[in-house]
Amino acid sequence: MAASSVCLLSLGTPYVPPHRLVAAVLDGDTTLAGIVVTELRVPRLVLALVAGACLGAAGLVLQEALRNPLAVPEMLGVSSGAALGVAAPLVLTLSLPAAVQPLPAIGGAALGGGLTLLTAGLGRSPSAVLLTGAAVAAALQAALLVLMVMADQLDLQLVYRYLLGSLSARTWDDVTGLWPWLLVAVPALVLCAPVLSVMRLGDEDAEALGVRAHRARLAALAIAVALIAPVTAVCGPVAWVGFLAPHLARWFDPAAGAVRWLPWSAAWGAAVVTVADVPARLALAPVETPAGAWTALLGVPAGVALMRSGGRGRAHRRGPAAPAAVRESPRGPRRPVSGTATEAPRTGASAGTRRDDPGHDGPVGARPAPSGTTGTEDAR
């Protein structure tokens, strides 16, 4: 995170050497480097850190509440709903004040998450919530495509760049618009962390410990909406950060719980976004690419690799499998079933001796075998 932050502040046009960054910030509006660093690059860096932390924390909340490592904002209709709430006023040319611009995003995110929970029976089944969320997200994305068809060429470019998640041309006004919403979401997130640890035990065990699983799941979704929607309103749906950051937190500390994973998930989310923003600015310079495209390219393969390595690590910690059952009887090797209890010389009629004569109470006797049968067939 530190290395990517220095690259974000130094690289570009104009180039500012790392040892001159402090002087450029202190110069402020007096030099070109000071204006570029303080008015463009620093707010972009702060927004990347805040957005990544919110998305990483929201991803952990959703995964722990639904007990599914694939539960991410993109799969539950939350990100698609927030994007629809932002794109609709832009395409329909509705003018909104800067103070209320996050409200359509929050309304859209709440709409997507609410539809998912209502369709899945208010979260009674975590697997049903995930599958229903994928369907709701697809429906909301279809509504977005309809809006894009209605948009003109300029609005279409803006909507397309926004839907991929971009930090380009963000200023201090965009950063300050996030703080009122974060002041509400962060305390609720801190209070929610111990409940998430209990919900890992399952709904029945959580109910036995005094946690109402359905209400806790609804509260977790509300907190995730409060974290995701303001970020999505400012920089768009930065994809798969909420998937990768929780897996990184678990991979580095697999024995911890949700209380310890939560700050690390936020930190890894901030690191992922800042690292992805470096190639977004510089890979095709002077053209900037959306940061969400790079988080998706880096996040999905890395997340799958972490899940596979985490599964192998858990199997290794469980220890080797129990040895196969010994096939031999503990009383020693089996004796042949044909013949008598003691190996006697087989002569004459004793060749057809049977031990498995039903109803025979006395000592094993010898009697002639029926015609057409042998001792081997009797044994079978």
Structural class: mainly alpha
Strand content: under 5%
Q: What radius of gyration results from the CA coordinates?
A: 33 Å
The tally of strands reads: 0
SSE string, helices as H and strands as E: HHHHHHHHHHHHHHH
Distance between the termini: 74 Å
Please, how many helices?
15
Mean pLDDT: 78
- Note the overall shape: globular
> Which residue ranges are poorly predicted, with pLDDT under 50 across at least 5 consecutive positions?
315-377
Largest sheet, described in full?
A: none
Please give the share of residues in helix.
55-70%
Could you please describe the fold and organization of this structure?
The structure is a single chain. The radius of gyration is 33 Å and the shape is globular. It starts with a helix and ends with a helix. The longest helix has 35 residues, at 32-66. It has helices spanning 2-10, 21-27, 32-66, 78-91, 102-119, 126-150, 153-163, 172-176, 179-199, 203-208, 213-235, 241-252, 258-282, 291-317, 375-379. The protein is built from 15 helices and no strands. Helix content is 64%, strand content 0%. With 380 residues, it is an all-alpha fold. Helix 2 crosses helix 3 (32-66), helix 3 packs across helix 12 (241-252) and helix 12 (241-252) crosses helix 13.
